[in-house]
Design a protein that fits this description.
331 residues; alpha/beta; 7-stranded mixed β-sheet; two-stranded antiparallel ribbon; 8 helices
């Protein structure tokens, strides 16, 4: 049992949808954009790269292709079923998110997505397309500053009335293939009252569902991640900060049959384990020292490199604890 399980027994986890069988659907290029040029940089264990080759045939269940029986193992544990097909294949983890996930800068800010590759073996490539300041809809679409009658920000649309997609999403779909994973974490900027970042809860959940379906059509496995918590305290105890978008992420997972990593709950448990509360001076600033100052940048939200590395390990521990098939690739 990992240290994380012992420290966060109260945390909520979401199990994966059961049901093996041959995967359905044919993938392929999405959105009409051509794939971007591939590149890679050396890292520990696995590779961080840009978008890669086109899509392929879909798969059922969450077991990595080739790890078990036809179409994936029931329950998604990745164990060996009848008719095993040899060693685990090379896969890509695609990441969509905001500044707490983005590669960022050294030493600040750094997101957990930029530290994830080092935790996997050489068969895994991580493509982190998280961008600072984005809500799920500003990451996906060209969003206007005007609000429509339904209380959502207007989207730029093509001649047929369909929303115009950002190139980062269409390039991701072009490269996504069977057995890949798509991690999605938003909910920090989405609560803005004004456009262009505002996203209502229903629009938030439907955006997650659209992304999950697009991944599944290409045989990839979506994973929803609740927004990581800022550091905030009630006396000597850390408390959560993301509220209704945490609940909305869980609801989207239940509605669309997608596993949810509750990084919000897990991050609060980590802050309590590390004894971050009360924060010296009441809030994090550029002069905050000690463990809190080493973990965060000059605010209570963004991580320094060491903090991002610890959050990435929390994500990896959740993969193991929830027995997601991707855990088979962890170092």
């Amino acid at each position: 049992m990992s240290w994380f399980t012992l420290l966060a027994l109260a945390c909520c986890t979401a199990s994966e949808p059961s049901g093996g069988g041959t995967g359905a659907g044919t993938g392929g290029a999405g959105g009409g954009a051509s794939p971007g040029a591939s590149s890679s940089s050396a890292g520990t264990g696995s590779t961080v790269a840009s978008t890669g080759a086109g899509g392929s045939t879909g798969a059922g269940g969450d077991a990595p292709a080739g790890a078990g029986g036809s179409g994936g193992d029931p329950g998604g544990t990745g164990g060996g079923g009848s008719g095993g097909m040899g060693p685990l294949p090379n896969i890509t983890i695609w990441i969509a998110g905001d500044s707490t996930v983005a590669n960022g800068q050294t030493p600040c800010p750094a997101g957990w997505g930029g530290q994830l590759a080092a935790l996997f073996d050489e068969r895994v490539t991580v493509v982190n397309s998280a961008v600072g300041g984005r809500s799920v809809r500003t990451w996906l679409y060209n969003v206007q500053t005007a609000m429509d009658s339904a209380g959502e920000c207007e989207l730029d649309r093509d001649s047929s009335g369909e929303p115009l997609l950002q190139d980062r999403w269409t390039r991701m779909l072009d490269g996504m293939k069977r057995g890949d994973y798509l991690f999605i974490q938003f909910g920090i900027n989405d609560g803005s009252r004004t456009c262009d970042r505002h996203v209502g809860l229903d629009a938030f959940k439907s955006s997650y569902g659209m992304m999950a379906l697009a991944a599944q059509e290409r045989g990839a496995h979506p994973v929803f991640v609740t927004p990581v918590s800022a550091i905030a305290c009630n006396g000597s105890t850390a408390r959560g900060t993301r509220g209704e978008y945490v609940t909305a992420t869980h609801e989207a997972g239940e509605e669309h049959g997608v596993p949810v990593i509750d990084l919000h709950e897990h991050s609060v448990a980590l802050y309590n384990t590390l004894g971050f509360c009360p924060v010296p001076g009441g809030d994090v600033s550029g002069t905050t020292g000690g463990p809190v100052g080493e973990f965060f940048c000059d605010d209570h939200t963004h991580f320094a490199r060491s903090g991002a590395e610890q959050i990435a390990r929390v994500v990896a521990d959740a993969l193991r604890d929830q027995e997601l098939g991707l855990a088979a690739y962890l170092e």
